[in-house]
Description:
The complex is a heterodimer of chains A (316) and B (449). Chain A has helices at residues 3-11, 18-58, 77-83, 86-119, 124-136, 139-150, 156-163, 175-203, 207-215, 220-248, 252-257, 269-279, 283-315; strands spanning 61-65, 68-72. Chain A has 316 residues and is mostly helical. In chain A, strand 1 (61-65) and strand 2 form a beta hairpin. In chain A, helix 4 runs antiparallel to helix 10, helix 5 (124-136) runs antiparallel to helix 8 (175-203) and helix 10 packs antiparallel against helix 13. Chain A is globular, with a radius of gyration of 25 Å. In chain B, 43% of the residues lie in helices and 14% in strands. Chain B has helices spanning 3-27, 67-78, 93-105, 121-126, 139-142, 149-152, 175-180, 189-201, 217-229, 247-261, 274-282, 295-300, 345-355, 358-368, 375-378, 381-386, 388-392, 408-423, 429-444; strands at residues 51-57, 82-88, 113-117, 154-155, 158-159, 162-168, 170-174, 207-210, 286-291, 312-315, 328-338, 371-372, 397-399. Chain B is globular and about 60 Å long. Chain B starts with a helix and ends in a 5-residue tail after the last helix. Classes of the chains: A mainly alpha (316), B alpha/beta (449). Chains A and B meet through helix 2, helix 10, helix 12 and helix 13 of A and helix 1, helix 3, helix 11 and helix 18 of B.
Amino acid sequence: MTTTTAATDIARPAPSRPGSGDVFRRKLARLGWGFSAPALIVIAAVTIFPIGYSIAMSVSHVDVSANGISLSGLTGSNYSVLIHSDLWRYALFFTVVYTVITVAVEVAIGTLIALVLERLAGGRGWMMALLLIPWSMITVINAELWGYIYNPTYGVLDDIFSRIGLGTPVVLGTPTPAIISLMVADIWKTTPFVAIIVLAGLVMLPHDLYEAAEVDGATGWTTFWRITFPLLRPTIALAVLFRVLQAFGLFDLPFVLTSGGPGHSTTSLAILGYDTIFNDLDFGPGAAVAVSTAVLVVIGCLVFLKVFRAQVGRDA
Amino acid sequence: MTVLPIRKRGRHSLLLLTALAAASALTVAACGSSSNTSSGAAKPTGSATSGSITWWASPITTTSPDPRAVLISAFEKQYPKIHVSMESAPTDTDTNRASLITTISGGSARPDVFMGDVIWPAQFGAHGLAVPLSKYLPSSYWSSFAPGLVKGATYKGQTYGAPFFEDQGFLYYRKDLLAKEHMSVPQTWQQLETEAVALKNKGLVKYGFVWQGASYEGLTCNFMEYLGSAGGSVLNSSLTKSTVDSAAGMKALSFMRSLITSGASPSAVTTFQEPQAMSTFATGQAAFLRNWDYGWSYANTASSPSKVVGKVGVAPLPAFQGQPYPGTSNIGGWNLYINPHSKNQAADLTFIKWMTSPAAQTILATRFSEIPTVQSVRSSSAVVKVNPVLATVPHTRLIPRPAQTPQYAKVSQALYTNINSVLAGSSSSSSGLSSASTSINSAVSNSGL
């Protein structure tokens, strides 16, 4: 089959006979696979191979030398090391808590911003451009900038505190403030992303429902919870999913700002995996950290989708 | 309802998205994988006079001119046919090491020569990530160094690094402030603490004493100095068991914590690495500083951002009350190593030999206040005259880190993370020490994370 015939096939109106439609669709699908093949091969090379290799590493004895990495034997010891490690359990706990809190706050603030933006008649473009600045900056640069704010000797925060006579705040040097300051930096950066996604969902909502609500005399509050929020669920779910996947891989902020400290208080799973692999050269347990993190985040997202779908079903 | 089909389609793409993102999380783990590149059985002689090499080195000082550039141009003047290009490495020694390990285990031929920490030989030797230099350089070469340095660069009978410059911990103090308050240079830690608090309370400085308390290798160095003064150690002599959870360990750690609680050191010291501590002192905000050799040239070079030029004194570190003065200084410093994949090992050796020659070592010692590794330069009166740090060296007592074990990185990590959390006030000295001890034991027995 050539491209030209395919093009005419597509241009032709849908065939009326049921059988020929299936054949046509199958042909088109085959052609589609053919065109996608080069890209798929590249994707396979850069994702599927490394994933397979990571899984293999996580169940093998791994030796690293100047000649690269060699795997030998099949073992569950890498995972048993994890399960018996207080540090891994803490990192898991920290990552989950961090993800839940930051994503919840981001979705709340992001939705608020989107609602405001939607009502904004003029200047919406400018506002969106301004909002997107934090999101468009590379996280490492963001982290360095926040580092200047939090810096205890010449930092912005230190300056403000000492000007109003509150002394020197210890931001990154003690556990709870360090965790909160990472969250603040994260929320500052990613809330605009949530806002943009929610805004996209908002502008697509059908107007007739709002008109009907107005006719029925519904208040703004009722309209939001009865119409806007239920209709926005798929959009919010998408935003949450994106954010959970990203927040669970928390690395840049603690790497730049705290190196996982003070103590281990900001050691996320990604930081732990990095330390285990690149500082300790323990590639096996490090790969086990990565694989278990991926499995956990997939399970988390599936559970989220399931619960979310059940809720939508109930509402409908 | 119109939402239904959208939701159905959305569900599929959401699932796909989940899978893709999880996939990208996984690829990180595979970053270290590589193809096999075996180094050829070349027989470098160290007398090559042509070629081009890449030298990986972290900044030696932050003053200008850059010592690395000065040394390279002096080398190229002598060997015009060898071209050296520099790659600047991270200042954090752990990040530096992680980058090198991925590069070398990934089979890269660049960098050819790398400046690596004195604590690396065991790990790099055990994993074959550096060329055993003792195979190529004669014993007459190795005997030119000051005692102890070559032993520190040796793992299982092979020497992997050529000692490039030595670092020790020193106490830098503000001469002007001490004179004003009629205080003497502290000889005990307790005296340092008292003076720091007094100077701070009088409003003469913002902070009393600054040092490196962040959760990283430098904190291990700082801790070793208090521990050494208190008479303690980290590992037993056979490197198989932790000895840090002891009365001496307790004395060292609770004193470090007391520096913060008494107000002698700022709480923020738990986030300080060398650059933060150095700049706090050099901008006149602290009365005392614990830092390495380069602190002198940094604080006293008019072209650097220093505001305390001419007001700084240097002394050995204090001891604990009742112990002989001076206290112990940790040995740091840097060696030159060769990447086993380097294509031009002969030129690499020429470069290393020149960098450890009296000419290069004199430049480092006289212009950048580093401690030279070559004995003849170190004891030359002409050099000592212009390097007051060097004049202090014969009076210091040294304590090494327990870096002879290939598990040193983990041992150190166990120390600095636990100590950092004690300093931050999130655990007590005794629980910090016992938790460090447990982690160290599992590290040296090669179990646990």
